[in-house]
Specification:
Blueprint: E1 3-4, H1 12-19, H2 24-32, E2 37-41, E3 48-53, H3 57-76, H4 79-95, H5 97-108, H6 112-132, E4 139-141, E5 149-156, E6 159-163, H7 171-183, E7 187-190, H8 197-209, E8 216-218, H9 225-233, E9 237-243, H10 246-257, E10 262-266, E11 271-275, H11 281-293, E12 303-309, H12 310-324, E13 329-330, H13 345-360, E14 364-367, E15 382-385, H14 392-395, E16 402-408, H15 411-419, E17 426-430, H16 434-443, E18 448-451, E19 470-471, H17 476-481, E20 484-491
Parallel strand pairs: 1-13, 6-7, 6-9, 7-8, 9-10, 11-12, 11-17, 12-16, 15-16, 17-18
Antiparallel strand pairs: 2-3, 4-5, 5-20, 10-19, 14-15
Helix pairs in contact: 1-8, 3-9, 4-6, 4-7, 4-8, 5-6, 5-8, 6-7, 11-12
Amino acid sequence: MRVRPGRNQVGLSQNLIRRLENPALFQAIADGAGAATFEVFNPSTGEVLATLPDMGAEETRAAIERAAVAQTEWAAQTARERSDTLWRWHQLIVQHTDDLAIILTAEMGKPLAEAKSEVSHAAAYLQWYAEEANRIYGETISAPSRDRRMMVIKQPIGVVGAITPWNFPASMVARKISPALAAGCTVVLKPAEQTPLVAGAMFALAEKAGFPEGVVNLIYASEGDAVGRELCSHPKVRKISFTGSTEVGRLLMRQCSDQVKKLSLELGGNAPFIVFDDADVDAAVDGAIQAKFRNAGQTCVSANRLYVQAGVHDEFARKFTERVGTLAVGDGFDPAVSIGPLIDDRALAKIEAHVADAVAKGGSIHCGGRRYEGAGTFFAPTVLTDVTRDMRVAQEETFGPLAPIIRFEDADAVVREANDTIYGLAAYFYASNLSRVWRVAEALEYGMVGINTGRMSSEAAPFGGVKQSGMGREGSRHGLEDYLEMKYLCMGGI
């Protein structure tokens, strides 16, 4: 394991955004903001990448009004017209994949190869919903009398407020707003304050794609309270879509309750990763590396608790630790690096606290377990064994490159333990017995289950959780339904 130095990226994001011909629309938004600004940092170096206008309730209110004015005309466009605009945006994202990935790595830190993969994933959502825009169907209903006709049509819900997280700042923008736009909704987006630059570049490309003024609106802000309150309280916003912590999701639900506003929430996770005795251990190790260490473990579907049955525990722990020890840590612009920095000092403090708690309660560190000194928020990929249920790492989402391995004996008991959490976003397990595969897949109380795979996200599949991991689904045809209202028409006098 080693830390690799990166190269200076100061000013890189600003230069690339200028190359993307950032449109006058965004300058107008910036000019309308107050004098306050905030800085965006490179987590690998601590250097400032950009200084942005710090917007608040007033700018959010103005963006909502613009979106409300644009809503009528955008909804009146044919599905094909909206599809064509989304398709042009998709093509521009594909053409600028390298530029967008560089911006993403500079502000978020993930390895450049992962950043390119994320941008491609974002483009895939735009392509998917460009196609789905043409497949919004109603239905006819057999009437109870001869003089009536009954039918159902679907219409866009209206102005949508979207709030995206820092860990996937490109794909989450596309995943949230592409179905809204396909349905005929207009959008006001607030990206995470740590990673707003790639969203700005994507919106610049959206302008070039031909979205009418007011259809897509971007709010930069250093904190989300004022923006979130305005989105939740403004009567012209008909839906909120949020990805982030369960605590903030609960707050948004309370703020939306007075207006009974529609919500989509993708919240926290505490994903179990279960390896049964009949599993292919080598495949399970590969899957665990993917599910745990992608994006330095900073994903809502990251494997947070690794349960390994006693018969294969030692073999799995040995092979897994060997693989983790080969992961290179450093600046995401180094092509040999596979683990970038954590997003900030708070993330470092949390993972350090989890490691210290586990060791104090009898846990064993097999590799890692420490932060790196110097610039950047780097933490060594860590494997813990002798982990017990009373440790914080077994109860809380770590959101970092820390893999706790928990030995288990009984297959039914481990499913009960995996379900013993308020969260229900994603789960994984490896097994070969077909009967076990079906029983475990059905018994796990999660919105998504990966079976013999450590990676399952796709624009064609519904992404979302149960319990306190959220409500609603993103991706697939089901993701479009969350932005449509069903209207029943009854015609008499026929």
